[in-house]
Amino acid sequence: MPADFISSLFVFILSAFLGIELIKRVSPLLHTPLMSLTNALDAIVVVAAIIIAGRHETRLATMLGLVAVAASFSNMVGGFVITDRMLSMFKTGKAAKKS
Amino acid sequence: MSPADLQQIIDFTYIAAAIGFILAIKWLGSPVTAKRGVVIGEIASAIAVIATLYDPQVSQLKWIIITLIVGAAVGVPLGMVKMTAVPQRTALSHAFGALSAALIGIAEYYIAAPGVPRFQMAEIGLEVIIGSLTFTGSLIAAGKLQEILPQRPITYKGQNYVSLTTLAAALGLVVALVIHPEMTFLFPIMIGVALIFGIMLVTPIGGADMPTVISLLNSYAGFSASLLGFVLNNKVLIVAGALDGASGFILSVIMCKAMNRSFTNVLFGAFGQVQATAAGAKEERAVKSASPEDAAAILGAANTVVIVPGYGMAVAQAQHKVRELYDILSKKGIDVKFGIHPVAGRMPGHMNVLLAEADIPYDRLKEMDEVNGDLPQTDVALIIGANDVTNPAARTDQSSPIFGMPIIDVDKARTVMVIKRSMAAGFAGIDNPLYYLDNTMMLFGDAKKFVSDIVRELSGGGH
Prior knowledge:
Oligomer: heterodimer
Structural class of chain B: alpha/beta
Low-confidence stretches of chain B: 270-282
Radius of gyration of chain A: 19 Å
Number of strands of chain A: 0
Mean pLDDT of chain A: 90
Order of helices and strands of chain A: HHHHH
Shape of chain B: globular
Shape of chain A: flat
Strand content of chain A: under 5%
Strand content of chain B: 5-15%
Number of helices of chain A: 5
Order of helices and strands of chain B: HHHHHHHHHHHHEHHEHEHEHEEH
Number of helices of chain B: 18
């Protein structure tokens, strides 16, 4: 078992517990924006895709990396755009009357 | 600056990004701070992406920049879809996320093959399997939500055995690759089997179970990113994936509880069989139907109204008409609230987003438990396009397939009005005794048209 594995597991377990505690507190009102936001955050996979595509180790790896860059970056951009749009729609009684 | 220094700076930006992600989710907790959460999430992601472009391993940026632009060009329109299309967009983004995680895993494999160390082989194998099955599963879910594919569950005899055998085969191939890394031809077979399993996983699941399935796929997409972080020893992927995975997991648990069903029950579905038995037991009973005039008169005379929306409202695109109804009743001094069942619609929070889009203030949107406390003192409960989530059989009839499912207790209101196309049963295929109660009035017709007829009556006849 590589030494990295243990430190990775450490990070994973702590983040998963933290995630569970944080997400339990999200109001059900916002469950749809929650899903689109976590999707956008998850698209950070794009950094791994950039590294694979930029290392140019094999032609196949570069091609796969580039497709992954496009797929994950579209998720990142689209996820933030739609979350922002959804949240702009949530207004309190007073704010809704003003608009 | 030496490459090692640069690498360290990049690692620090990844730590900053991880902190940003955690704050983003924390601030999303309440509508007041939610927008701040999006901003910090955007900043964190941008920092990490820009830093990565300076990574010493990365050369020939031209193609990467072009691909980023292509990704953004695809992403923006996907972010601008109509609110009614949000469930299928979400399923599609799970597919994209899982696809990129799987592709990176596949690339890593072929860079190292055939000499992949055993431990890493196991990680890559699992990662690629989860990514691949989430990819096809999410595509099927998106197809069902977009109604390209039939929404009803597609089942056949012995299906669960076939599906589980397929999954076992994929896992078996990983074991084989760990033991015999030189047998590289097994890797594409493993990918193919995982892709097929994803299709098998979602095809038998019906429209009404979509909130759970979308949440589960969300969780798988997150965990595939996390596993990729293990493969690449990249901690920011592990953090983001774990947060996303935890989110999907929590949402699936909430959805399952709201249907009083277990994970296995949703995944290895029972509703297909339920449909057949429940339909047979149906009997003909009299219902009271009413016209828009009658409905308007009763609503106009009420002091408190609770509106319970369901998927039918989304299908009929009735949310803007419902807002007009809300406005006109509120102006008359009537207290109007919305009772939102956790599984109403096709994804978690679906109804809230549609109603917020129609400019209904979010403080009027109440959770099931809260609204259930008010219903016994409510004059009118108006149900628009919801069925199973209001079925009192869930409370009273032990033989009912949905017995034990928490429902919105609309039957406790003084008058119940149900806008419905016909007497056809809901997605669960179960008859709803609510419709035969003495205090229930059935309003037959298209939700949008019926609500606008009521609005016209209330505003003093045609304008």
